[in-house]
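TICKET: design request
STATUS: open
ATTACHED STRUCTURE:
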């Protein structure tokens, strides 16, 4: 089988507290939906930052298709079609929602066709379009930041804890929609129940490591999934 995203033994650079992603391997097929589940201290977000390039890989390799991106900058990874809808979107002073979305395509103006694409998938975005990001509630910021992530129609979309702000049912609806748009998705979340049904492959993280992987039905029946999502698994030896 040819894999689209390949992460081989990836670790973050060591920190003084030693809490970090360690020795993670993931294989995701093109056009698939991968589920990355775990609790609030599983370091799912850090893994997504390692993939998108906003945090450097300390050890291991990462490739998208036939292109090795281990040492690539965030800009180079973006050029290859990787985007991330962050759990904590960065806020830049005086940027409107429209300006924030423009960051997803290098600051270029968003044409009518692309704007229609965004408003169709995120109807709530239209009334936020001219408002300042710093004036928006957290849910609204997540909507705008998701628009930034999808405006360029990325090949690989990473989504971090969307259900926390938009609710599980809305998150599931959006994952289905974006998958139909042809995007390959890796969805990190702590609420696996409804999202499991959408996934082709699932990985469960705890304390920065993959503790369980496999088919959604098999992982869904394993007690370690629930324990990891509520932070009840002990650190690995």
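STATUS: resolved
RESOLUTION: sequence designed for all positions
ATTACHED SEQUENCE:
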């Amino acid at each position: 089988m040819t894999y689209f995203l390949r992460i081989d033994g990836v670790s973050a650079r060591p920190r003084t507290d030693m809490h970090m992603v360690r020795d993670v391997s993931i294989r995701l097929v093109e056009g698939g939906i991968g589920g990355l589940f775990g609790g609030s201290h599983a370091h799912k977000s850090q893994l997504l930052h390692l993939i998108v390039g906003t945090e450097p890989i300390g050890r291991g390799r990462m490739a998208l298709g036939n292109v090795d991106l281990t040492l690539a900058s965030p800009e180079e990874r973006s050029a290859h079609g990787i985007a991330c809808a962050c759990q904590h979107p960065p806020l830049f002073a005086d940027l409107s929602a429209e300006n924030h979305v423009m960051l997803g395509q290098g600051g270029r103006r968003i044409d009518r066709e692309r704007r229609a694409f965004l408003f169709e998938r995120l109807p709530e975005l239209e009334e936020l379009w001219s408002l300042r990001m710093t004036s928006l509630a957290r849910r609204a910021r997540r909507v705008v930041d998701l628009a930034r992530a999808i405006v360029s129609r990325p090949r690989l979309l990473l989504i971090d804890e969307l259900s926390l702000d938009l609710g599980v049912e809305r998150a599931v609806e959006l994952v289905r929609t974006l998958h139909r748009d042809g995007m390959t998705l890796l969805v990190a979340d702590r609420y696996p129940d409804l999202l499991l049904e959408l996934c082709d492959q699932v990985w469960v993280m705890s304390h920065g490591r993959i503790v369980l992987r496999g088919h959604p039905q098999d992982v869904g029946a394993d007690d370690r999934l629930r324990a990891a999502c509520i932070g009840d698994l002990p650190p690995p030896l």
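CLOSING REMARK: Residues 1-81+154-232 form a domain with the Rossmann fold fold (CATH 3.40.50.300). The chain is about 35% helix and 25% strand.
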